[in-house]
Amino acid sequence: MTTMATPTQSAPDATAPVYNPKSESAGAKRAKSIAFHVAALILTAIVLYPGLWMIASAFKPNSEIGGGNTSLWSENFSLDNFVTAMDGIGGVSTLQFFTNSLVLAIGAVVGTILSASVSAYAFARIKFPGRGLFFGMMIATLLLPFHVVIIPQYIIFQQLGLVDTYIPLLIGKFLAADAFFVFLMVQFMRGLPAELDEAARIDGAGHVRIFGSIMLPLMKPALISTSIFSFIWSWNDFLGPLLYLNTPEKYPLPLALRLFQDQTQSSDYGAMIAMSVLALLPVLIFFLVFQRYIVEGVSTQGLKG
Amino acid sequence: MINRRHFLTTVAVGTASAGVLAACGTGSSTSGQTGSAENPVTINYTWWGNDDRAERTRKAIALFESKNPDIKVNGNFTDFAGYWQKRATEAAGGGLPDVMQWDLSYLRDYGQRNQLLDLSTVKINTDAFEKSLLPSGQIKGKTYGIPTSTNAFAVYYDPAKLASLGIAEPDGTWTYKEFNDFLTEVGSKSNGALFGGTDYTGVWWMFNVWLRQNNIEAFTSEGKLGFTKDDLKKWWNLTAGLRGTPAIVSEERVTQLAPKSPFGSNVTATEVTWDNFMAGYLGDSGAKELKLVPVPSDDPDNLGLFLKPSMLMVASAKTKFKDAAARFIDFMVNDPEVGQIFKTSRGVPASKTQRDGTTFEGTDKIVVDYETSISQYLKDAPEPPIVGFGTLESSFKRIASDLNYGKLDINGATDAWFKEAEDLIKQNA
Fold first, then answer.
1. Cα separation, A220 vs A118, whole angstroms
2. A34, A223, B178, B304: which could form a disulfide with B212 (CB 3.0–4.6 Å)?
3. CB atoms within 10 A of CB B135
4. Which positions 22-51 of B are in contact with A (Cβ < 8 Å)?
């Protein structure tokens, strides 16, 4: 984190002298830099305001959220919403929802990493008949909106008796069904110098060895960005769990969150927002820990490996 | 990488497999398996609702299982919006749960597509129900839903707010003119701090009440519109003089307050809507007490009011346990102890045995007393609404809000709604 922060802060000073170094005085440069930072801060504040509103509202009583109440902080500060949120719903504890979300998210990450990297290796490095066709078909699945395949997929899992298990939600991840990640890794691997595998092959390594000892270590940035996206997508997924899970004990957080908002009775916005804050934390932490790899993962071409 | 031939191959493969899958969709159905105490059958029951309803339902299920040791009930719940997405997928996949909580607006859609069990073929006791209520669960002679509970239209007001303005509480015998004057009085006496109410002409069901007051039916038995453009113009003209004045809260304000209602946000003194929203308004507004009075009518003998099933119980047409499903539905709608568990959280219990077996206090009592007070004016419950009714209802609201924004005049609004309604009815005919 700290290594990342330092260059960002010094960036404006480092780039400022590059253009028009002679015509501007030190004072003007300083004023420009201040104006830039003020503008950036204002924009940040605007962008972050909904988040701030959410955190502030989590501490308000239900009747003061939304409606005509415009003040950010309430005088009736209380932790009641968090107490209600942690209480759970219909006899299922909130911890259970967290555990379920975590199981699904970690399953998704593990499955995607294992399957997408192997498939990507095949597409990028092995010349097999029909490679172009299969690659094209894989990309074509990206063009199919999820909603088109919902019903056929549901019928398959229903006939197999797998509804109300985590299998329909995870099996695709273990079978490299997320074409986006396979594509990401294929592109990344194509950037890695082929000389590396050729050298390994001359030394007698087979595909398994090349993949395990040469490719995987070099692909770390791609693997990490895949993990991040796959974790966040799974954590936030609502429709999949909604359709495939029936037992409330198996629900992940997004389903539980909605239960606080009931159109036909009273909505507990306070508890819903408090739970949103709690639900956001793991994703935020996951993101903060790995964020510096994201850009690297998407943009590096592997040459420096 | 992708050329056209590859793409076409993919599409062809995909289409072929979809066809195969559709063929798999028809599941087998056997009738009426029964269980015993040693070897109970398990039925699935699903509902929408919040934590509170989940807790109450859990108690009701436990009670049912203790009285019926040969049946186990597996309860599931989701939120209202997700509920219908899930049902649509399950219906397409042939896997609807055995017993479901249902909403009137979806009854015709699923009933016509033979997804729901005809409950007249199984044993459910409906003796304790008002005869005027049952037809709203029936389509073409088949009973698809049994109402658990009812709601009725009413005018809510906050007595504390009226007292602070020095306005007398209404008694509910008022004409539209008197009601409008009342709204104006609230708006002018509060100097803009409080609006009289929301524009009630934007509410479809209130329009329905007004049509009944004028002895016009909303939909004919063939599923066509039963009223004319002139009727709708007359209706929207009722509040023409109030729009843009402090009598009616502006549409901008309503949008700002969403998802809360203006009444729940303490911005208006009254609201015209269903009487079972009481708990929601109390929770949202933090008000100590809210009261209910009948809707205005120009004919004091015909208030146009009716009881609507606030929710129904239905069973899947493909359930393997028809008998168990019927016993569970019968228990949920008739058992007095179930009434005691739910109170008015589902609406006022529809079955008399259940209603009589329940003690109502506080807010619950206000709602029950209201429905009792209007009982002499009640007319037949509406038939299950036409397919696509939800769209009609929301376009009614949207077009009425365009009226309030001043984007449309009354003629334009009427034409716009009629066009949408007629297109929709033609599509679903």
1. 14
2. B304
3. 14
4. 22, 24-25, 44, 46, 48-51
Q: How far is B49 from chain A (nearest CA, A)?
A: 6
Domain locations along chain A: 86-299
Superfamily of domain A86-299: MetI-like (1.10.3720.10)
Backbone angles phi, psi at A112, to 5 degrees: -65, -45
- Residue A167, Cα to own-chain centre: how many angstroms? 21
Q: Which residue has the tokens 């109410």?
A: B197
How does pLDDT run across B63-111, given as a tens digit for each residue? 999 999 999 999 999 888 889 989 999 998 878 999 999 999 899 889 9
List the Cα angle B150/B156/B157 in 5-degree steps. Answer: 160
Q: Is B153 left (phi over 0), alpha (psi -120 to 50) or beta?
A: beta
CB B106 within 8 A of CB B84: yes
> Minimal Cα distance from A240: which residue of B?
B86
Instruction: Write out pLDDT tens, residues A138-170.
Output: 999 988 887 888 889 999 999 999 999 999 999
Which residues of chain B are within 8 Å of residue A268 when distances are taken between CB atoms?
50-51, 283
Q: Which of residues 60-99 of A touch B (CB under 8 A)?
A: 61-63, 66-69, 87-91
- CA B259 → CA A67, B36, B83, B279, distances in Å? 8, 48, 19, 16
Q: How far apart are the first and last CA of chain B?
A: 47
Q: Which of A87, A91, A264 sits opposite B49 (nearest CB)?
A: A264
CB of B351 closer than 8 Å to CB of B129: yes
What predicted TM-score, i.e. pTM, was given to this entire model? 0.79
Other beta carbons less than 10 A from residue B114's beta carbon? 12
- Cβ of B76 and A163 within 8 Å? no
Q: Do A265 and B279 touch (CB under 8 A)?
A: yes
* A291: closest CA of chain B, how far (Å): 31
A9-37 pLDDT, tens digit each = 444 444 444 555 555 678 888 999 999 99
pLDDT one-digit tens code per residue, A210-238: 999 999 998 988 898 899 889 989 999 99
Q: Which of A264, A267, A268, A272 to mutate to test the interface with B (most CBs of B within 10 A)?
A: A264
| Residue B145: partners with Cβ closer than 8 Å, 6 or more residues away | B102, B104, B107, B111, B116, B119, B136, B137, B309, B312, B313, B314, B384
Element (H, E) at A270: helix A269-299
Contact call for residues B265 and B249 (beta carbons, < 8 A)? no
Greatest Cα pair distance, chain A, in angstroms, is 76
Q: Does B384 touch chain A (CB under 8 A)?
A: no
Vertex B154, ends B148 and B160: CA angle to 5°? 120
For residue A95, give how far its alpha carbon lies from the nearest alpha carbon of chain B (Å): 16
Half-sphere exposure in the Cβ direction for A175 (13 Å, CA): 8
Task: State yes or no: ipTM above 0.90.
Answer: no
Q: How far apart are CA B60 and CA B64, in angstroms?
A: 6
- Using the beta-carbon criterion (under 8 Å), do A158 and B85 form an inter-chain contact? no
| pLDDT at residue B148 in the model | 95
Which among A240, A286, A254 is positioned nearest to A109, based on CA atoms? A286
Asked if B21 lies within 8 A of A155 by C-beta distance, the reply is yes
Interface touch A132/B90, C-beta < 8 Å: no
Answer yes or no: are the C-beta atoms of B44 and B320 closer than 8 Å.
Answer: no
Q: What is the DSSP letter of B379?
A: B
Work out the widest C-alpha separation in chain B, in whole angstroms. Answer: 79
Spell out the domains of chain B, with CATH numbers in brackets.
41-150+309-369 (3.40.190.10), 153-306+384-428 (3.40.190.10)
